[in-house]
Amino acid sequence: MSEHDLVIRSTRVVTPDGVRPATVVVDRGRISAVEPHESGVRGAREVDLGTKALLPGLVDTHVHVNEPGRTHWEGFASATRAAAAGGVTTIVDMPLNSLPPTVDADALRTKQKAATGQCWVDVGFWGGAIPGNLADLAALHVQGVYGFKCFLSPSGVEEFPHLSLDEVRQVMTRLAGLDALLVVHAEDPQLLTEPEGPSYGQFLDSRPGRSERRAVEQVIELARQTGARTHILHVSSAECLEPLEAAQRSGVRITAETCPHYLTLEAELVPEGQTAFKCCPPIRDSANRDRLWEGLARGVLSCVVSDHSPSTADLKVPDFSKAWGGIASLQLGLTAIWTEASRRGHTLSDVVRWMAEAPAALGEISGKGAIKPGNDADLVAFDPEADHLVDAGALHHKNPVTPYHGRRLRGVVETTWLRGGEIGSEPYGMFLKKVST
């Protein structure tokens, strides 16, 4: 009987067909077979997880790494180490908050050069769509970005301006010709106001749910007219679910995501002055959170991704009208979601679908997101019954700022494998590229 590179057994392997006892066989970095649990297959390395779960490595398509230029906020070494510790084996880096932003092919090369040799997991890249770079989109597409991000409202950084609706139409028309994906931060700037004071309630009032809904409706109509494949980022308002569901049923090529903080935190319990909870769009009330879970269960929202947008602690001043808006949670997304999902009766298969399969499908990231023969052997040993107390200072994030500090979360990531190798001694992540057709 031939010996394989790696064999992992578990009574709870999360496969596309459900959770079952199985033996996962790995050769040359890929899953070569998924055998019965008692198959007796042998490997040069063997791991028996017993009743602990084996998941596919998660895919997080919404991560702000910030290097180069704002590496003191977060860099590729710290972000990807945090990802690995949280069971994430693939990230796709957002085009803004780095300097230069990834809005042309030269900027992409600059970012890749900065990241070389630092990545503990595999990394892909988004391009950016800003005023004036329409002519640069095709070259970025050829270079293998997974799509293009734009804002309908100010991004928070001057070097990445938002688009007007007419500019969005032009971008969509260009991307439809390339069959490239547009991902959109959807808030209507006409419905946003400056907070009237430092409290969380005043900040929340300044970014109402209807601003998201109106922007989503505008994007839907443009997607309908142009045929462009479009994705709505970080949906925080349940008001968006109705127009999204109607558009999806009518055949518009539009999908949407939400994030762990919108599904696990609630406005009523945001402590005053604790601006680690500030993000845009904002965390809303518990009734809204319940409706987001319903939208996720129905498939209106397909992905749960981090929108990891960290900053230095000094930018999180205790005033919600002035603090930087961004949640740091890359290392904690799996356990935060599992804590709430299991409480609501959802399964590990649900979590894997939302956090691995669907994000891989969104980006058309081949070989990722599922335990099946032919895929990369990106795997996670996960104890769903254990728990852990979050200590912000013990995370791999560069700055110890997270709204989950002091929370007890369910589930513990014990081991993460990238292409069959146990992550731990040195970074060997690869750059991923979208294959243009």
TrEMBL record:
<keyword id="KW-0479">Metal-binding</keyword>
<dbReference type="InterPro" id="IPR006680">
    <property type="entry name" value="Amidohydro-rel"/>
</dbReference>
<comment type="similarity">
    <text>Belongs to the metallo-dependent hydrolases superfamily. Allantoinase family.</text>
</comment>
<dbReference type="InterPro" id="IPR032466">
    <property type="entry name" value="Metal_Hydrolase"/>
</dbReference>
<keyword id="KW-0862">Zinc</keyword>
<dbReference type="GO" id="GO:0004038">
    <property type="term" value="F:allantoinase activity"/>
</dbReference>
<dbReference type="Pfam" id="PF01979">
    <property type="entry name" value="Amidohydro_1"/>
</dbReference>
<dbReference type="InterPro" id="IPR017593">
    <property type="entry name" value="Allantoinase"/>
</dbReference>
<dbReference type="GO" id="GO:0008270">
    <property type="term" value="F:zinc ion binding"/>
</dbReference>
<dbReference type="InterPro" id="IPR011059">
    <property type="entry name" value="Metal-dep_hydrolase_composite"/>
</dbReference>
<feature type="domain" description="Amidohydrolase-related">
    <location>
        <begin position="54"/>
        <end position="420"/>
    </location>
</feature>
<dbReference type="InterPro" id="IPR050138">
    <property type="entry name" value="DHOase/Allantoinase_Hydrolase"/>
</dbReference>
<keyword id="KW-0378">Hydrolase</keyword>
<protein>
    <recommendedName>
        <fullName>allantoinase</fullName>
        <ecNumber>3.5.2.5</ecNumber>
    </recommendedName>
</protein>
<dbReference type="GO" id="GO:0005737">
    <property type="term" value="C:cytoplasm"/>
</dbReference>
<comment type="subunit">
    <text>Homotetramer.</text>
</comment>
<comment type="pathway">
    <text>Nitrogen metabolism; (S)-allantoin degradation; allantoate from (S)-allantoin: step 1/1.</text>
</comment>
<dbReference type="GO" id="GO:0050897">
    <property type="term" value="F:cobalt ion binding"/>
</dbReference>
<dbReference type="GO" id="GO:0000256">
    <property type="term" value="P:allantoin catabolic process"/>
</dbReference>
<dbReference type="GO" id="GO:0006145">
    <property type="term" value="P:purine nucleobase catabolic process"/>
</dbReference>
<keyword id="KW-0659">Purine metabolism</keyword>
